[in-house]
Every structure is written in C-alpha cells, then in structure tokens.
C-alpha cells in the first residue's frame, strides 16, 4: 500500500514520474475518458521499440507502430503534422531506434501540456491524492 501512496504522490510531480511508474492504468483510464489513450499507447510502444536489437524485429515493430498509430487511416491515429508523418514513412525503409523520435517528442509534449494537467485536475486523481495524503497521515 505504501508503494501505491508514493506512486500517487509522485504522479503530481511530473509527467516523467507518471510515465516511469508501472501502474499507469489510472492515467490510461483517464485518457480513455478523453478519447486520447492512443497517445500513451504510442509513447509506450516507442519506448519498447527502442529496446529492440534485432533488425528484423525492429522492422516488424516499426511497421506495426506505423500501421496502428501513424498511417493516415490508422485505427488509433495519433495527432501529428504531415511533415512528421512523412518523415516516419521515409524512415520505414530502414528503420532505426530513432525512427519515431520526432513523433514521440510531439506526443510527449501534447501529453505534458494538455492531457497531464487535466489529469492532475481530474476527480479520479484528486480522490487518489486525497486518499494517499490521509494514509500518510495515518502512518
């Protein structure tokens, strides 16, 4: 329980703290209510993509990320400009670890400046923070 309390308190410090936390489900659920969970999913997919060392696996993963999030008709299309989208399309011929970096930075910025502040003001986060503060006082 104490780890969860520490997590909740850390979430209010920065988006990085929230993204580093293994229990991102609360943020993900919040994003679903905002119809923007694809941002977090894309960001996490990019983080996992960067850990791939096999060229063949990297190519498969890059094509999968592109099809799911970047392509114009993607089911979970992220909101990026056409220049970035075209850059990724060009990178797909020889995808490297930085293939999605520009789009990932854009999505991070969107989450940091838009979704994250709204999350901190949301009823769900406020209730969790209040519970965490009460639990800390009780110990």
Q: What is the straight-line distance between the termini?
A: 11 Å
Helix content bin: over 70%
- Per DSSP, what share of the residues sits in E-state strands of 2 or more residues? under 5%
Task: Tell me the structural class.
Answer: mainly alpha
Rg (C-alpha, Å): 17 Å
Uncertain residue ranges: none
Largest sheet: none
Give the SSE string: HHHHHHHH
Instruction: Estimate the mean pLDDT confidence.
Output: 91
User: How large is the count of helical segments?
Assistant: 8
Outline type: elongated
Number of strands: 0
Walk me through what this model shows.
The chain is mainly alpha-helical. The chain has helices spanning 2-11, 15-20, 25-33, 37-49, 55-70, 82-91, 101-121, 123-138. Helix 1 crosses helix 8 (123-138), helix 4 (37-49) runs antiparallel to helix 5 (55-70) and helix 4 (37-49) crosses helix 7 (101-121). The model has no long low-confidence stretch (mean pLDDT 91).
What's the quick description here?
The chain has 139 residues and is mostly helical. The protein has helices at 2-11, 15-20, 25-33, 37-49, 55-70, 82-91, 101-121, 123-138.
